[in-house]
Specification:
Elements: E1 10-14, H1 19-30, E2 34-39, H2 42-58, E3 72-76, H3 82-96, E4 101-104, H4 120-154, E5 171-176, H5 180-183, H6 189-209, E6 214-221, H7 228-239, H8 249-258, H9 268-279, E7 290-293
Parallel strand pairs: 1-2, 1-4, 2-3, 4-5, 5-6, 6-7
Helix pairs in contact: 1-2, 1-9, 3-4, 4-6, 7-8
The structure holds nicotinamide-adenine-dinucleotide.
Nicotinamide-adenine-dinucleotide is lined by residues 14-15, 17-21, 39-41, 44, 77-80, 105-108, 129, 133, 176, 178, 221-222, 224, 229.
GO molecular function, one term: oxidoreductase activity
Family: Belongs to the short-chain dehydrogenases/reductases (SDR) family.
Keywords: Oxidoreductase
Length: 303
């Protein structure tokens, strides 16, 4: 099934070996995109590539052209290493010719410990991956997008205006933040701080990059599951010693869902559909916003 919003677009996805990233690769590949899949963990990155290829072998491989295996490539990349990021971006442009969209999604949740016990070294690690790393990727990809935009403008009408069929801001970046950055989460002080910084980064860079034809938005999910991440986080919250959580993981899960106005978990696909909206031209007049995907949790509605 091809989708004109993504057909032949090159999308860079960081954290592609993880839960959201892997499903995102499959979702956008199915819609005809070309994917540069980045992760520091080569094993999980290879699993993503293998899983995606198997999925296509099983179903619509023969109906999608060009074949999906030629439209996804994995790149080992540590987002905290700026020279590594820069050389990966050069490789992506060499392999795919251009970059249209970025899902800036790699992240690390850090320790689950109350503030009084939190290790400052881990706080710094969380900030380095979730904030500095996200910025390094955003800047490196935006430089490439900005160069493409300048070249396209130079090739437009003589007076420099783009033709009416061409969007003013064809390039799009989505940063993965979290509801934790909006309202804080007990025992996750570093993670919450980092995601609040991602929201500020999104707003500031959206202003800086608008003159370069680039939109920047954030997505803030919460209570996504079921699955390993959901179960593991409840176990860690239960073991954290925080008075805000029961000491039994099942009770933690029940209390969390009870606090959501919609009284259920969100699915990974619901997250990705929201990312797709922000990445695509469907949101062509939206920049610097934060799309919250949390069943109403942070809305101020009483559960
Ligand atoms: N799962 C949720 O419920 C949830 C909710 C809100 C926000 N988020 C955010 O969504 C994003 C994806 O989460 P997920 O659930 O897929 O987590 P995940 O742990 O499954 O995936 C994160 C990926 O990021 C990669 N990564 C970590 N450090 C890196 C580095 N230095 N360089 C490159 N890659 C690195 C990891 O190897 C991993 O594959 C994260 O930013 C996370 O904070 C997740």
């Amino acid at each position: 099934m091809s989708d004109p919003r993504f057909h032949n677009k090159t999308i860079v996805i960081t954290g592609a070996g993880g839960n959201f990233g892997r499903s995102g690769c499959l979702y956008f590949l199915r819609r005809g995109a070309r994917i540069a899949a980045l992760d520091v963990d080569e094993n999980s990155l290879n699993e993503t590539i293998a899983e995606v290829r198997n999925a296509f072998n099983d179903d619509d491989a023969t109906t999608v052209s060009p074949p999906p295996e030629s439209r996804i490539k994995g790149y080992s990349c540590d987002v905290t290493n700026d020279s590594n990021v820069e050389s990966v971006i050069i490789s992506i442009v060499r392999d795919f010719g251009r970059i249209d969209m970025l899902w800036n999604n790699a992240g690390y949740q850090g320790q689950i410990k109350p503030t009084l016990e939190y290790d400052p070294a881990d706080f710094a690690r969380v900030m380095n991956i979730n904030v500095t790393g996200m910025f390094v990727v955003l800047q490196s990809v935006a430089r490439q997008m900005s160069q493409q935009h300048a070249e396209e403008k130079a090739g437009a009408d003589d007076d420099g205006t783009l033709t009416s069929s061409t969007l003013s801001h064809p390039y799009s970046i989505v940063n993965t933040a979290s509801v934790a950055g909006l309202r804080g989460t007990p025992a996750m002080v570093a993670y919450s701080s980092s995601k609040a910084a991602v929201l500020a980064m999104t707003v500031s860079s959206a202003k800086d990059l608008a003159p370069h034809g680039i939109r920047v938005n954030a997505i803030s999910p919460a209570l996504i599951g079921p699955g390993y991440m959901w179960t593991r986080q409840n176990e860690l919250h239960a073991a954290s010693g925080s008075p805000y959580f029961a000491s039994n993981a099942e009770e933690v899960a029940k209390a969390k869902i009870g606090g959501v106005p919609m009284k259920r978990l969100g699915s990974v696909e619901e997250v990705i559909k929201s990312v797709a909206y922000l990445l695509s031209d469907d949101s062509s007049y939206t920049s610097g916003t934060n799309l919250v995907v949390d069943g109403g949790l942070s809305s101020g509605l009483k559960a």
